[in-house]
Amino acid sequence: xxxxxxxxxxxxxxxxxxxxxxxxxxxxxxxxxxxxxxxxxxxxxxxxxxxxxxxxxxxxxxxxxxxxxxxxxxxxxxxxxxxxxxxxxxxxxxxxxxxxxxxxxxxxxxxxxxxxxxxxxxxxxxxxxxxxxxxxxxxxxxxxxxxxxxxxxxxxxxxxxxxxxxxxxxxxxxxxxxxxxxxxxxxxxxxxxxxxxxxxxxxxxxxxxxxxxxxxxxxxxxxxxxxxxxxxxxxxxxxxxxxxxxxxxxxxxxxxxxxxxxxxxxxxxxxxxxxxxxxxxxxxxxxxxxxxxxxxxxxxxxxxxxxxxxxxxxxxxxxxxxxxxxxxx
Amino acid sequence: xxxxxxxxxxxxxxxxxxxxxxxxxxxxxxxxxxxxxxxxxxxxxxxxxxxxxxxxxxxxxxxxxxxxxxxxxxxxxxxxxxxxxxxxxxxxxxxxxxxxxxxxxxxxxxxxxxxxxxxxxxxxxxxxxxxxxxxxxxxxxxxxxxxxxxxxxxxxxxxxxxxxxxxxxxxxxxxxxxxxxxxxxxxxxxxxxxxxxxxxxxxxxxxxxxxxxxxxxxxxxxxxxxxxxxxxxxxxxxxxxxxxxxxxxxxxxxxxxxxxxxxxxxxxxxxxxxxxxxxxxxxxxxxxxxxxxxxxxxxxxxxxxxxxxxxxxxxxxxxxxxxxxxxxxxxxxxxxxxxxxxxxxxxxxxxxxxxxxxxxxxxxxxxxxxxxxxxxxxxxxxxxxxxxxxxxxxxxxxxxxxxxxxxxxxxxxxxxxxxxxxxxxxxxxxxxxxxxxxxxxxxxxxxxxxxxxxxxxxxxxxxxxxxxxxxxxxxxxxxxxxxxxxxxxxxxxxxxxxxxx
Lengths: 329, 501
Fold this sequence. Notes:
A: elongated; B: 501 residues
């Protein structure tokens, strides 16, 4: 009896060990094969088609298709300032066939703010790459009496809560930028929130209803070219190639760096080999001349960061937001 | 005139064989997408963008814009034939268009709608060519304060949709306003009435609600009766008669103006234009009570307005580089993907593209007219298809359409829910149109008021500082109060009559 059982359990054990070995080998092989030919990678974008996030993501997707040899399909899941797409991304199967775009500040705000009841946290994202940093800026109309940032600060000091400045929402990157600026300069503006987007803010601005437009570099290309706006300053550590001659905030004495940035992530738990394949592809796309030209044509400031750098950037950004978030309530 | 010279140059671009082909393709696709209930221009344009990567920028934009305004032609068809809106902006056409179909006048309705759409689109494009600058400057005068006043005026016209029972219309109007409150508070950013669902954070999706209330409900109501096919009346001539053409001239002209002007105002949707056109027609008509029974004006006006709106909404894109609506934003994205930045600078840097595209709007509208008129004979044959088969297919398309708005299965649930709600409301004889009006205008009104109050930091006085707003609000007050005067006048007349007798 005993001998029979031993024999059976030895057989069982060896079968188990063999299958274990096969699985280990095949999963390594599976990862090495990523992506399988013909299998589509889905890129979830939490903002509407045609917007700057979507357009940048589509360019990256088409670049990745050539690098990885399989189709990369952009799927727009707009709503709740990106939260719907972030939720879908973090709940997707972590096999590398679903990736998504992660924006600042919307991705961080959505899990930091308890009122948003997010089902994910920072650790739910496996970062792949930072793609675009779109620095924030202040602009006025060409016929505005404000010629420099200092003029704006002086006016705000003399008329607290009277100088009207636009944002794209209470927790938008513009709102955070203005809150930091107010703290830095001891001023108070009248923040006017245009939650439908920068287009409605621009309409009000061009119609003279708003004194200062707070927007991002990618938003004003058309108006800058036609001479309708005067950009007072850009919140970046270097001047923008799209706006020659425009100073940064730092150059004018205000050490303020703020931007809306866009990167990509996979759901946490995606195997390392797959993550490396994806982030490697993104790195190569970002370095290619064709991609750089297309991004420049669209006014998107390409600033690549690999996962390690992106993680560090995320931590820093999270700290800033944790400080500023209570001020938005 | 310089503009005309440039336009002629644009025509040489637009009439080049491959661009003609693209305009044709876009028109066909647009009509098809418009016909399919629920599937809208945003989905269509977004789907095509990657395919246009390989094309020349001019060709790509011509095709995408043709698709965009083409959907406003196709959306009419199911509205009139089946009382199921193909497009959110065609929902109001269901009211009189379907009534006409039941009387055997579907062909006439479709013809007038196609002609009106053509006129509307063309007039809006003429406005773009001749008066883009001044029109845009005028539109820019509409900041949040003026916008709020305009919406209040629009809401006051709600009385015009009353129909048989004013009380029921008002109840439905309030219901629409309640629905409009769902979502994130526009100022504090906190969710309201969202039942903890993040899908409700931007409000209850408008397209799924319309498809449910009008489309699904219609199908549900019809399943109760043993209909074999839709139209029982004999089909009269497909061509509109002299009287019908004569009756349509006014609505078409008015619809063109309303659509073009509202299209200029960022934030206004095509549905708002078509609804307001319907109300306007009812107000100026000699027989307002007959609306809903098959008045051609109720088809001519809205159908013209929604096309004028679509073409008019492209004006701010060219003059300011600003998209007036989410759909136009997708087209703007298409421009950017091809390395073109829409706006006044486009005319300097790529004049051939800019004018080529503008000329293609004329060409596209002509193509669409030629495409749609002869097809009417084929479309009306749809009425002969057995009901069961036809509606199964339509429900399938509506499911796809509801999903395609945001790639969300949740929207399908919303549509089904509102289909049931719409069915119940119809059984109880409540009018559906007021819900849609307040559902559209409610959020616009709240947002613009809150933004205006942001600007004034809480001071309501800002409303009275704007002459435009004061005028609009006074108009609204007059419209609201006028019926009371009529009531008192009648009373005094009766009294003096009695005294005299």
